[in-house]
Structures are given as structure tokens and as C-alpha cells.
Amino acid sequence: MVMKSPAQTAVELIRGGNTRALARAITAIENREPEGDQLLRRLFPLSGRALLVGVTGAPGAGKSTLVDRAAAAWRRQNKTVGIIAVDPTSPFTGGAILGDRIRMQSHAGDSGIYIRSMATRGALGGLAPATSDVALVLDAAGRDIVLVETVGVGQDEVEIAKLADVTLLLLVPGMGDDVQTIKAGIMEIADIFVINKSDRPGADRLEQEVQAMLAISPPSGGWEPPIVRTVATDGAGVEELLAAVQRCADYLNTSGLGAQKKARAWRERLLALLRERLLERVLGQVLGDGALEEYAARIAARQLDPYSVADEVIRKAGL
User: Fold this and answer.
1) Partner of 82 for a Cys bridge, out of 88, 138, 167, 209, CB 3.0 to 4.6 A?
2) Is the pTM of this model over 0.70?
3) Would residue 300 be called left, alpha or beta, if left means φ above 0 and alpha means ψ between -120 and 50 degrees?
4) How many CA atoms lie less than 13 Å away from 316 in the CB half-sphere?
5) 271 vs 47, 264, 268, 276, CA distance in Å?
């Protein structure tokens, strides 16, 4: 009898819907444990089927509430859902509130929805370092939809567009000069604009501003981002939003843009992996036993310059 490896057993449990095995796998991946890397290698060929939907926008836009309502709507369509809710990490304690999971407790008894909160652990761009890997695990676990809710930090929160198939940008009326405050960068990544809390005064004005922006700078690729109004607290407009997401996904698939987008995303991800693993190699081979601290102290004292040190370390690593 051939004994199965722990990784193979874990993969079979994950594929079979075992939420404990799924949770343990994600924890191993977040903590960069060796078994997490083994699991990713085995799960990767089983992924690629789920629709990844990114949800971003300014703090207070109602992202968590909308994700909660959208997940419930997809469940009514008999689709399974994975939710990754990214929360900011405290720069002082290293901890995170992980409040998004608290706001989604209505799904606690539904095995068709899996919710995972993640801390950014100091990463920029609105995502945690392991977000893409966790999304891959949920995809391989058989989830039809994977929702990724970003931190909501502002103009530079564009990393989600590299991960998601469809990116939703939430806007809210009454936040001053609405579009102008966030248009740099983040306005360019939206596949669908969502005016949430659209029962508030100013929704018409906000929609006109978005339409004007799109008229001035039409998106490339042929897809014209629609504007969908929602009131997430009572579910208004959510079904229309899901229909828009499906139209976008269908367009990306039939036009070939989806495949191009995925290839660009994996190019970025591969470069990130190379940087990460090359750095680990350098740190392990050359900068052990306090060498990094010694270099830093000598650079601070102006005894060495950092550029020459970097070249020296690379030479010592044989790269």
C-alpha cells in the first residue's frame, strides 16, 4: 500500500470541502511555512476556474456590507463563495482588528461561504503579501466566486487589479470633490463603478462626474465600465451589480482580454517571487550572523556607501 504524503492528504481534504484543512493550509501559507509552499505547488494545477472579484474604494464606502450582500446573492444562485477580507496592520503592535469578518457573521452557518480575514502585515497597495496565494487556494478548493476586499487606503490601492478578473470601485456621494479626491491611479483600474449609498444626496452629481471622466479618458481594450447604483445596507442594486460582473467576465473571456490580463498578472507575480526568493538566498548565504546589521551601521557612519555594498553582496552570492 502506497502511503500518501501529508501534502497530498491535505489537498484531497481541501478539494473535498474540509474547512479545517483549508484553514490550516491558508495559515501555513500566510506564515510561509514549508508545507504551505508544497501545498501551493500541488493546488496550482487545480486552480483557474473561479471568478476573482476585487472590491476596493475609500474607507467608509461600504465595501464589507456590499461584499456580504453580494455573497448572499451569489449563494441564491447556488454558487459557492470564498471571501478574503484584508484589514490594516497596526504599525505599533503588529496586530489587526479584522473587523470585516465580524460584519459578515450572518454567513457563519453556511458551508458554501468561506471567509478569511488577513492582515496587511505592513504591505502596501491594499493587499496582504499572501493574498494572491490564498485566492489560489480558494480557487483550487472549488469556490465559484472569490471576493477580495481591500483595505481601502486611497489612491495607490491598485494591486487588486493585478489579481482580480473583475475590479469593483466603490464610490460614495457626499465626500467632497468626489472623483477628484481619488481619481489618480485607482479610478483607472475599475471594471465597474459602484455608487454605493446611492440614496444619499449627490448621487446624480457623482454619476455625472464619473461619466465625464470616462468620456475624457475612455478605457483601452473595448470594455466600457458601467456605473451601478447600490444601497448595500438593504440590498438594493446588488442583483444588477452581479449581472454587470457576469457581463464583464463574459466579455473578458470572449475578447481574449482576460487571458492577456492573466498573463500580465502572472508576469508580475513571477517577478515578485524571484525577488523574494533571491533575497532569501542572499540573506541566508551572505548576510547571516549579523552581517546585515554591521553593513547598516557602517553605512550610517558613512564608512561605506549602500550602492557598493549591494554590488559586493551580489558578488558574494555568486549572482
Assistant:
1) 138
2) yes
3) alpha
4) 16
5) 20, 11, 5, 9
